[in-house]
Amino acid sequence: MEQVPSHLWQYAQDQAFLSDAAGETKRFLTELARDASIDVHLVEARPKTLASYTEKSQKTNDDGTPKYTDPAAQIHDCVAARVIVYTTRARNDLADLIVSRCEYRERQNPGDKKHNGYDSEHIVISGIKDPAVQRRYVALAKYLGKYQGLEIQVRSVAGHAWAEYEHDIRYKSGAYQELTPGDKGRVDQYFVEAGGMRRYMDNIFDEIEELLRPQETGDVAPADEPVIGVDEPSPEGLNPTPLDPAALGELIADRFPRDEPGDSPSLAVLVEQLAALDVTTIGQLEAALSNLEEGQVARLMDYPTETTQVRKLDDELLAVFLDRYVEAAGDADRRQLLRLRLRRVRGRFTIYSLEEPNRTRRPVAAARAVRDLVKFVAEHAGIPATIIGGAIGASQNDVTPGYFPKEVQTSAGPVYVATNLSRSYAENLMRELVSRVPGSGLSVKRAGDLLCEAPPEISAADSA
Predict the structure, then answer these.
(1) What is the pTM of this model?
(2) 241: which of 221, 266, 282, 337 fits an S-S bond (Cβ 3.0–4.6 Å)?
């Protein structure tokens, strides 16, 4: 009786274990994409069948020698995963996340060498760095310790369509094999041309993504300026309860009563991050969140599945504090996730653009738009024309305490402008400021729609 090789015998015994590892691989990749707010079309993972493993382990080189001298250590797709995302930007982001969270043997895009239209990130991971993640995904961690490698492919939807059809025609189609060399060459050339169309589609999808969620912040908002302002009351009116995990848990339970709470370590992370921003009481946190409408940020994040109370508050704080919140994170992995998620709120709240007769400025946040208008009005009508009681003044003392005035340098001198502004109050200030420069041609648009415009210049005849 022929003896079964040990690697095949062991592989046959591991079938149930490999299936568990594949299931955990899918959950791991899904969680990673979700935590970074990367839109995913499909995540799939599967163990290689025993028949397929046997066939692959018995392959030989051209000279007849075994291709794999130690199949158990050399075959890295015993469990393989594939993630299909919508854009090449998302593909690159997710691939970067994978290699930052995992030990890996290789990362390559075979299309870089083939130049035939194929485009897919191939990553072979060999371990998970975070011990806490290892404890959550026991079967996956055990698999990586035993089988030495797990292959993950990350593609765009356009790249996946090209790869699937090309593989089906060239490697599975009997009709292709029966073609003459000349006709095979024509089919191959068509796939090269289709690769050009694939690149065009990827580029268009990336352009759409950039409009929706810009990567470059430019002059959208300074790092110290929140996207959503805060009408903060005086310190005496704030709830002085110290902010700790227990108090924070109660606050978010009231704020998101229909969602799962999340884990205690995550609450502790938020408390520590808020402390780095000098938010140390329940009252200060409530003030920071006071101008968010219910569900406003959640709608922008567009969660693919039910999420936790902690994650929702995390995203609301990201919307309020922007880059300051990212930088306050305690470790590089968390900062990486927050930067990716930041695009969703930054791109959606920077919606105000100032338009002059010969110039249209890039969209900015509400508080920034008010300051830009103050500078325009001061330079066209003088500093007195900018003064609005409690919000805009010639000195810091002219601004109501708790509104944290910011100095705006103009050609006529400095003006001090409140920064903690709700959207509605900021828009009222915009309307008032624009009304004070008649005939200037200035207008403000909100998300492309006209919010307000300067009235026509009043002639001497009209005033008479």
Answers:
(1) 0.72
(2) 282
